[in-house]
Amino acid sequence: MSPGLRRGCLSLLLTAGTLAAQDTRIADWLFTLPETMSVASVLDGRARLAFRFTPDNMSATVLVADSADLGGDDPKATFAAWAKQGREALSRQCGITGAGEVAESRTPGDYEQIHWVASYHDHRSVEWFAILTCLRSGRRAGAMILLSNDSTRLPQAAAALDELLAGATFLSCRPADAGKPWLTIEIDPTSTPSFLWDPPPKLPEGDSELFGIWAATGLGAAGDLREGSTTARFGYTYYTFFKNGRVLRDLPPEGLLSFKQRFWAQHFVGRFGRYEVRDDAVLLTFPQPGKASVRETLQRRGADLARGETTLTNVLCDEAVLEGTFLRAEWRQLGAYYDKGITFAPDGHFSDLGINSTVNIGWWLGGDCTMRDPTAKPGKGTWRVKSNTLELLYEDGRRRRFGFHLYGDESKDKPKAIVLNGNVLVRRE
To answer: Does the pLDDT value for residue 113 go beyond 60?
Structure first.
């Protein structure tokens, strides 16, 4: 890295930004996400930030490390040693041979900062730049790492990161009387979103006539029609009605146990609308960004709803007794990898061999970010079914909630088939 470019990046990172309303939480971090940045994914339990201006043939990534308790009698000295250890670890990982440049400053929120900027080359001789920024408040410290091979836009990326860090704080250091900001993105790698809402939200109240989740099964096409490689795929159609006159044309990904309408309405754009009941007709209106609203009409037929010739039944389920080992319904056809089930005991305990990795389930975390479980990580813990939610609390700290209902006319007492977010799981006999 040229001295001028290095000094330019440090200058940007030492520029005091303005404190703004915080809208993003990642683990213990609270900050305002700049418009030029996005949360792209969660990898190996770590959130990754991306820059919207980075071209597809380049890479610029910010890794977010959770905060840690420094301990010791002298937090400032311990922080300096902690930051040095981080620089050394990053140097080993990336093969950085130079010393780089270190600078110190304070943020507008009075957090201490230590910055380090260095460069290195990968096995293809492509030059990369590393910026490690460590923040401290009292005995808590955390770090963000910018890695980029986009030298042209590196000053722009450093400026965006500086803007973010200028207003960054730790949730654990937030004053008790500060109040909690409204967050559009809230991420804890161990937990699906609804566990982070304190206090847990209640279902919307109102006087509208319908409440429940109506579902119908059907077949759709999967593959490429143009290449003639399509196959029929079994799936569900859902309508979830709330007492305040709102309707979601889907199954809530975490069920109804801790449902926050404002959060999920951001995700299901075009699928969150309103309904009105007129005699036996249910009139649905779904606003579409920049286009005319989509309107549908369902017919009430006793406890069911009808969409044309399709009958939808109410699959509300507040409890169930699960027993046995459940796997994805197609596990025999899909191969040995999918022979990873989850075993439920009626006493509320479970043993999971990796079911999360075999079903297409993800949880939206805000922005562009969806959390999935790509690896078959086994675990044990406790389970419960309540309000169309299957809740799994793992002994290792993972917390998962799935949208849940029974398959077909299965009994809630030891059913042979269940449905998680539209994925059918069957009990292995």
So the answer is: yes
